[in-house]
Amino acid sequence: MPSKNELSPEIIEKIQLLQEKYSSVGQDLASYLDGLLYADFLTYWDYINLDTLLTLQQPKTPFPDEEIFIIYHQITELYFKLSLNEFGRLRTASKEGPITPEFLLERVKRVNRYFEALTNSFDIMVDGMDQKEFLQFRMSLLPASGFQSGQYRKIEICSTSLDQIVHKDLRDKYDNHGVADIETLAEHLYWREGAIEIKTGKKTLTLRQFEDKYDAEFLQLARDVFDCNVRKVANGLEYSSENEHLKDEIAAAMRWLDVNVNINWPLMHYKSAVRYLQKDVEDIAATGGTNWQKYLPPRFQKRIFYPELWTEEEIENWGKGWVKREVFNIHE
Ligand code: HEM
Predict the structure, then answer these.
(1) 4 in a domain, yes or no?
(2) Which stretches within 39-159 are classed as H helix?
């Protein structure tokens, strides 16, 4: 046994490995060891940037519940970021060679987990704020809206081919589109018609701000993932006799992703809009005057990433059972 200050053979071996590592890139190990000698030990709060994180909540009004609203949006955006990280890994891997069924399955399962966490926590919004306070502070936040979440739109772009997220009347027309058509399709993404003023039929300021900030990014992303969005990758997977059994598991995970992103999350979100805003026409002003009752419920827009995985009947009834059960409390 070496004494307390003697170097053990394992440590000597590690130093030799480090020496090789550093000299292979022309660096001097001794200088790096010097740095190590003076470096502070890492703390939890520095590692996760806690102090900065806790400065990122800056309410615009004195109503205490506004902070709940801010923090829950921030939490959601972080889960969106985790989801986009997984789609990013798909993109990186697709440059290196064909994607394996195992790899795709893992990515989709992770995104499903993030969305389940969001759906299961949405009651923090639905029940967790005072309605009167909400309607007061919400007015101070106009024209900002969660509608302007760029990450939410990016998740859609990465999940499926662009023809599935254009306005529903155009989906058949653009089925089988090529990269050259992306710019045209991007003009018809479904949400562009979701932020139209009821009175004038014009684009809301909310939408115009959003387009100015993100349109170029969305276009680039749509081009980048043309060949490696989840739908395209799944359709091009090659199975062997060893992983043939994953076919059903992947289809099930993708159906679940469709339900999570296009039914469960939107409906929990819709439930909060109903709780706070469904009073009378004046309250609609709190959203910038959009016709959200006709826009938000999944049964109207039928956003479906993977129509090939659903029966006609399932598509026909998209989102309906949930609305009856959860929003209107009708059990049949
Ligand atoms: C009390 C809570 C909430 C209410 C009352 C509410 C209300 C609304 C309304 C009325 C719209 C329609 C567009 C508009 O008129 O501005 C909308 C859209 C949207 N909100 Fe919220 N929202 C809430 C919480 C959230 C949260 C926590 C997020 C998370 C990021 C979020 C993200 C979105 C997104 C992504 C859209 C666009 C949905 C789509 O295009 O289908 N909202 N929200």
Answers:
(1) no
(2) 44-47, 50-53, 65-96, 101-121, 123-126, 131-139, 150-159
Atom of ligand 1 nearest to the CA of 266: 41
Confidence of residue 199 (pLDDT cuts 50, 70, 90): confident
pLDDT-derived band at 291, boundaries 50, 70, 90: confident
- Residue 324 clears pLDDT 70, i.e. is over it: no
Pocket test of ligand 1: the residue of 145, 198, 302 to mutate, having most ligand atoms within 8 Å of its CB, is: 145
Q: Is residue 32 part of a domain?
A: no
Is residue 315 within 8 A of residue 259, CB to CB? The reply is no
CATH of the domain at 139: 1.20.58
Say if CB 234 and CB 101 are below 8 A apart: no
If one counts the domains in the chain, the total is: 1
Residues 212, 197: Cα–Cα separation, whole Å: 18
259 in a domain, yes or no? yes
Atom of ligand 1 lying closest to residue 191 CA: 40
Residue 176 backbone dihedrals phi, psi, to 5 degrees: 65, 25
327 confidence band (pLDDT: 50, 70, 90): low
Looking up tokens 């615009």 gives: 60
Helix axes 246-259, 101-121, angle to 10 degrees: 30
Domain that holds residue 94: 64-327
